[in-house]
Specification:
By secondary structure, the protein is an alpha+beta fold. The chain is built from 13 helices and 7 strands. Strands 2-3-7-6 form a 4-stranded antiparallel beta sheet, with no helix packed on it. Helix 2 (24-45) packs antiparallel against helix 3 (50-58) and helix 4 (77-88) runs antiparallel to helix 5 (92-111). The longest helix is centred in the middle third of the chain and has 42 residues, at 239-280. The chain is globular.
Length: 405
C-alpha cells in the first residue's frame, strides 16, 4: 500500500466512523447538557464532574484527536477548541479538565508516532476513553514549567522519578498522566523530558487540598508523584521542542476557548436579563444596558482573537520552522494573557448589566460562579510571569508595516 492509499484508507475509516453516529457538535452538546445540569453541585461540593465525563466517554469525546488509524476521529484544533467553548458555556471545571486532557493527548499524538508505547496509549485513549491528567507544577517553581527540580533516574530499561507535584488537576480521577522532569540528576533545570504514563506506572500520595474560589471541580490537589516505569514512557524528543510546537499552542488555545465559553454563558444571562427588563417596562432599557453592549463587544474581541490564533496554528502546525518563529511564539504565548483578561472583562460587564440580579446567588440571572471561575484565568500560569518572560522576545519582534503583514 502506498502513502496515498494509506491516507485514503484512514480518511475513509474516519468518514465511516463519523457517519455511524452523531457529529462532534452533537456529541459536545449532549455532554454540555449534562455538565450544565450538574455544574452548581460540582462547584458547591468541589467535586469532579463525574456525570459530565460519563457522558463524554459515551460520546467518545476523550479520543476525538486520536488519528483514525488508532481508533479516533482525527479531530482538528478547530474541532477540539469548539468542544472546549461549548463545555465552557455549561460548566467551567468540565471545560478546563477537557482542555488539559486535550493538550496532553495532543502531545502523544503529535510526538508519539512510531513509538510502540505511545501508539498503545493512543489506542487506549480512543478505545477505553482514558482521561489524561497533567503534572507540570512543582515545588517552589509554581507555574514555571520550563524549569524542573525533579529528575528522572534511568537504570537499565526502567525509569524512576519522585516529584513534589503541588498541583495535579483531577489526578485522582485520571487514567494516565503526562509529566515533565529534568533529563538526569546532573542536567540543568531547563534540560527536560516529557513522560506519558499509564495509571499503574505511578503512585500518588496527597499532600495538599483544593479549597479555592473558583474552578473547584478541577480538583487540583497536590501530590507526591512517584514513578517507576519502563523507559519507553519517555518521549525521545527534548521537551523544549514539544513545549514550543504542541504544549503551549494547545494549552493556550484550549484554555482560552474554555474561558470564552464561560464569558459567553455570562453574556447570555445578561441578554436574558435585559430582554426581561425591557418587556416589563414597556420597552424601556435598564440603566446598565450600556454594559451589555460592552460585554458583547468584549466577547466579540475575545472570539476573534482566539479564532485568529487557531487559524495561525492550523496553517503552521506541521511546519517546524513556522512554529518556532519569534512571531508565532510571541503571539501564542501572549494569547493566554490577552484572552484571560478579556474573559474577565466580559464577565464583569455582563454582571454589571444585571446588577444585583447577577450578583445574587439565588436567582435566574446569577453570575457568581461564572465570575469566580473566570477569575482563575489570569492566575493559572500567572500573567505577570508570562509577560516578564516574554519581554525580550516581544522587544526583538518587528512592528508590522501594514495591516496585512
Amino acid at each position: 500500500m502506498n502513502v496515498r492509499e494509506a491516507v485514503l484508507t484512514v480518511d475513509e475509516t474516519q468518514t465511516s466512523f463519523l457517519e455511524q453516529g452523531p457529529s462532534l457538535v452533537e456529541r459536545a452538546a449532549r455532554t454540555a447538557a449534562t455538565a450544565a445540569a450538574d455544574a452548581e453541585g460540582v462547584d458547591r461540593d468541589a467535586r469532579f464532574p463525574h456525570k459530565a465525563f460519563d457522558v463524554a466517554r459515551e460520546q467518545k469525546l476523550l479520543g476525538v484527536m486520536i488519528p483514525a488509524e488508532f481508533g479516533g476521529f482525527g479531530a482538528s484544533i478547530h474541532d477540539v477548541t469548539d468542544v472546549c467553548y461549548t463545555l465552557g458555556r455549561a460548566c467551567a471545571s468540565t471545560a478546563m479538565i477537557y482542555a488539559m486532557h486535550t493538550t496532553k493527548v495532543a502531545c502523544v499524538v503529535r510526538h508519539g508516532h512510531g513509538i510502540p508505547w505511545m501508539e498503545t496509549m493512543m489506542r487506549r485513549v480512543a478505545r477505553d476513553q482514558w482521561l489524561l491528567a497533567s503534572s507540570t507544577t512543582e515545588g517552589q517553581n509554581g507555574g514555571n514549567i520550563r524549569a524542573s527540580a525533579a529528575a528522572v533516574d534511568v537504570a537499565g530499561d526502567t525509569v524512576s522519578l519522585l516529584r513534589d507535584a503541588t498541583v495535579i488537576s483531577y489526578g485522582a480521577e485520571a487514567d494516565g498522566l503526562v509529566t515533565i522532569a529534568r533529563r538526569a540528576t546532573d542536567a540543568s533545570a531547563s534540560d527536560q523530558v516529557l513522560l506519558a504514563l499509564a495509571r499503574d506506572d505511578y503512585s500518588l500520595k496527597r499532600t495538599l487540598g483544593w479549597e479555592t474560589l473558583g474552578m473547584r471541580g478541577t480538583c487540583s490537589t497536590g501530590f507526591e508523584l512517584k514513578v517507576d516505569c519502563p523507559t519507553d514512557r519517555v518521549f525521545p524528543e527534548a521537551y523544549d521542542k514539544i513545549h514550543a510546537q504542541t504544549m503551549t499552542p494547545f494549552a493556550h488555545l484550549c484554555w482560552s476557548s474554555a474561558w470564552a465559553g464561560i464569558a459567553a454563558a455570562a453574556v447570555t444571562r445578561a441578554q436574558a436579563f435585559v430582554r426581561k427588563a425591557a418587556r416589563t417596562s414597556g420597552g424601556q432599557m435598564p440603566p446598565a444596558a450600556a454594559h451589555f453592549t460592552a460585554a458583547k463587544m468584549s466577547l466579540a474581541k475575545l472570539r476573534a482573537l482566539i479564532s485568529a490564533n487557531i487559524d495561525a496554528f492550523a496553517r503552521a502546525e506541521h511546519d517546524e520552522r513556522a512554529l518556532g518563529s519569534l512571531d508565532f511564539q510571541s503571539s501564542i504565548t501572549l494569547l493566554k494573557v490577552q484572552a484571560s483578561e478579556l474573559a474577565v472583562e466580559t464577565v464583569m460587564h455582563a454582571m454589571r448589566t444585571a446588577g444585583l440580579s447577577g450578583y445574587r446567588n439565588d436567582g435566574e440571572f446569577t453570575m457568581g460562579r461564572h465570575l469566580r471561575d473566570v477569575l482563575s484565568s489570569p492566575i493559572m500560569i500567572n500573567n505577570d510571569r508570562i509577560l516578564a518572560n516574554a519581554a525580550t522576545s516581544t522587544l526583538m519582534s518587528g512592528v508590522p508595516l501594514s495591516l496585512h503583514d
